Records
---
Amino acid sequence: MELAKANLEAFAATLLELARQDSDLLVVTSDSRGSANLAPFAKAAPGQIVEVGIAEQNLVGVAAGLAAAGKNVFAVSPACFLTARSLEQIKNDLCYSDRPVTAVGISAGVSYGALGTTHHSLHDYAALRAIHNITLVAPADNFETREGVQCRC
Amino acid sequence: MMAAHYRLDNLVAIVDRNGLQITGATEDVCQLAPLDEKCEAFGFAVQRCDGNDLGTLVRAFEAVPFRPGKPSLVLAKTRKGRGVSFMENVARWHHGVPNDDEFSRAMAELEAAEAAMA
């Protein structure tokens, strides 16, 4: 593992490794494969990625449904939308319904910088910490990112 | 939109169209009609039916998919509180809690209906 590797690179590489070992692993994206660095994943494993369009609430609902059907699901979306727009689906469809889904919020904090407050995600930890039956991980570097992805639901 | 995009014709959505919400009639509070046309515009094949009639519902489900390549939607017209005369189609029973007398009367009606079915 390179010291200078970015979190997103480690995320995409680890996810592809896992997908190759597990045909039940599915990645659900909300028009976020580019920003999540998952375009190479989509090319390498086209049968293991589900695109829902710009529809974060549906992203989480679909992920919960796939998990209920026995799939090992990653739901990947910008943190600002995932943790605000679909907070109710995280609370009800995932946590309350006890569905094992790994939700990945990319570009957290002020990563989107110039895109402004609509794209900033300063509320995510506060909002999710108030919900029962969820484990939160904030990887600080590519090592922790890799470990976090491997510790998936 | 996604269901139509992926042509999920093994998916069935059921709308319990009882026409009431806590404030009153759905069409007075904030109109939903024409719900069938709206759902069709989103790519569903829609069938309307009497949601309080089991035979009609079974026939609808047996007809799935209503159109090959499209998700199906059963628009089931129902009467909220059906089977208990004083609760039926009364908005306040959206969240009403029966007192002892109301509970006894409701159970008596339901038990009589059950006995008639046997």
---
Amino acid sequence: MTTLRELFAGAASEKLTPIDQALAVDEKTHTPWYIQALVVAGAWLASLFFLAFVCLVVDWHIFGDENRTPIGVIGVVLLIATVVARHYVSGLFLAQCCLAFSLAAQGMLLFGFIPDSAGLGTATLMVTLLALALYFLFPDFLHRMVTTLAAIQLIYWWLSWTQLFPPGPPSMVLPGSRAVLLDLYFLLQLAGLLWCFLPVGRHEARRPLGYALLFSLVVMEVQPVFVLWFMDTVGESIPAAKFVYPWYAYVDSVFTAATFFFLAVWAAGGKTALDRYRPQWIAFGAFLGLFLCWRY
Amino acid sequence: MSAPTPLDQRASIPVLRRLVAAGAVPVAEGAALEQRLRRELPWAAWFSRGLLVLGVTLILCGIIYFFAHNWSGLTDNDKLVLAGGAIVAALIGGTWLGFDTFPGKVCLFAASFLVGGFIGVFSSIYQSTAEDWTVFAFWALLVTPWVVLGRFPALWIFWMAELNVSLFFYWQKFLAEWDFDPNSHPLERVAMLSLLLFNIVALAVREIAVRRGIAWVDRGWSALALVALIYAIATAQIISEIVASTDGTNSIVPSILGLLVYAALAGLTYLQFARVRPSLPALALGMLGVCVTLTTFLGRLLFADVKGDPVWQMLFMGLLTLGIFGAGVYLLRAAGRQFNSTRRVE
């Protein structure tokens, strides 16, 4: 374990006294994670009550019916107010309130304006457009990551289930063209991931997208394990959906999990952690190449 | 020996970045120090341990899935030999690696986990009238020697989880359904209280062991896991008491008694983790439970006799929540300052 004293002892400017003072100030002003957790819990709970209050006042008392559209209108107004407010507030508590309000407002907006009859495509389009707009308008790491992840995953589900191709007999073996499309989507996400983390220099704005892509890829690749487990457990009762999955799919998921575990370590470490400009680069390329060979 | 100063704390990247942001360290020097710090991090050990844990988890999942998938195609002897063989293999691996090493401990953990698989296979082949709680209790009993020998906090927590599940199933056999309504099922109260006491005793034993200098027990997260479990049980029960006893049809007495018990629990937490062995994270967990309980209690009182939409009650609840959690954060910060000043004086 390296102490701060040892770390600063070898530094070019050994400003031990001012650093000592700065540390004492930091100790007093810095909020540890567990207090931050309490602040976040309070902010979210209070936000839910305030949100319920706003909904009750505006919807039932002003519009006075059970139409869904007023909820959507409240969502739009609330979202605009939250986006504006987020630019003026600082501090963890208010930032978390804004996050809670924004996510709730987006939920209300979608609930209010997407009728039940609309397909997955409409919801995907709206969520994607919202995520895209809010990525620039709402400067919050978690918000960006959550909305982007939702959009990426919805696109994946839309590509998986929508009738892009002529319907065939129900089977776990995906039609060839859809499988290729999903693989292209996988590669697109992988390229996005590299674009977020590879370039030299600090690209803070790309990091939420990068982590969203990382989570999305992991979810996308690891889920067959759970789907298989589920279908083998209850599949007998749904003969039409009986899965026929090749044996290597099991290994594929495990291999993918290991790949992304490596990638997560590498990404979390930043540019210097694994000294990636040197042989690790080659190792990473080889690992990725091996993975792609295995997959195709 | 001189008193430790802030410079004697562990060097970490977040602290370094805060110093750069505060202007105490020049940006370029901060970047160089960060690079040096990253280089000195035990990446290899962390990576190796992470992959080991991931690998063992996947192998264990694979074994369970193997049995589930091939159940009908295996003879009884195959099933028993394979399940038992996996335990033996894990034990041999652990012995070979040494139970004092991390890989050895992980092997022991895997062996303990596989005992459950073996019991499951055995009880499926030789159908008996054994109840769920006895299966878990028997599992915990069988692995007890390994848990004692392993001196591995993760294994202890696993063992504790088995006993908790066993206790839960024991009470469940007397309950037609577990609906968190102590008025319709008073036995739920006894069940939750027994679970609570069991975990409090476990935490007390752990704390005594730490005080007696048993070093391997002294892992901060194991105490936090127990505190979290204790507060999860206590908070779930007190919320069900509050909801059940303030709706105007039932007595409020159990709710008040429950609050008193909860207050005693909070007091004990404060004594242990503020006076005896200071731990701000443990106090924060307790504080989170207290804040949630208070919010529920006041909310239930506020919403008790509402006719129509609870419009203004929602607004008051928002404000009350802010007040309660704000007070909690203030008290925790005060405790933190007190810990720091005590540390300096010492």
---
Amino acid sequence: MRLFGKKGRPTIVFIAGEGGHLEQANRILATLEPDLRSSCKCILITDTETVNGSDFDECWNIQTCAPKHRSSRLRDVFTYLKNSASVFRLMLTSHNVKMAIVTGPGFAVAPAIGAKILGAHLVVFESWSRFENRSKCGKALYRLSDQFLVQNKELLSLYPNATWVGLL
Amino acid sequence: VSIFVTVGTTSFDSLVKAIDQGPFANRSIIQTADGSYKPGSAEWFSFKPNIQENVNSADIVVCHAGAGSVFRLLQNGLIPLVVPNTERRDKHQLEIAKWLKQKNYAVVSMNVESVNKTLGCYYEARANCVQFSEERFFFQDSLNNLVRKHVINN
């Protein structure tokens, strides 16, 4: 059920951090058929200013403090929640978000929940670097997601309701 | 023998230092990310938009155990020397390093202290490795159907 009326082009938000998380998001984006790709807007929500989201239509940054820059955990939490709220407001007021695709890491949890509250279909990929342990993002979103996908078969014992999809 | 070392997007100073102060320094090019240690013997750079040229021209690629770097190399048919970055707060690179070792997909040095020794016997270790053969992503049709259903037709 959608809680809010939306306008504009249907939008998919990809929520991904840097490095391998972004690589997975790029690979997912590349699997979209051209007619679908041209019919919707694809927005990358990331936590790193230096991320090159050039394959996406837009790139939004949720600033969190990396551990090496951390001065105060409380301040980091505040910054993260404040920026997540800004992203939520943007999704609510200016975009027609119909799907969220998440590849982690942990910062992705708040915007993913935000998208879900707005009625988006939530697709979560557990990180391809996980074999024996669940990621924080995976743990938090497993039960909330509409589709929970794992890339390594070993994880099916930890996520019994997940779908194995092969390696991106 | 030419060596290319890549640490991905997160600094891994202990690996950079071990290579730079080791016996293979003058044959190495190191991608250092934003680490604070600046190599004095080996060639280095922090970031580049594309490191494929460095990968292609190296005889041996040494990389951190970040899944993005590792899978890209393996899917290109290469057998890298992989070192987990335990300087990170999150130790999940140990998980993929253990998995690579168990599957014999890569030469693995579980700690930085042994990386030069492992480099010295890389070719012997590589002889025991097998080509990467994990099943590739086969969910694209289902994913496109989900997009059609929930994004376009909804």
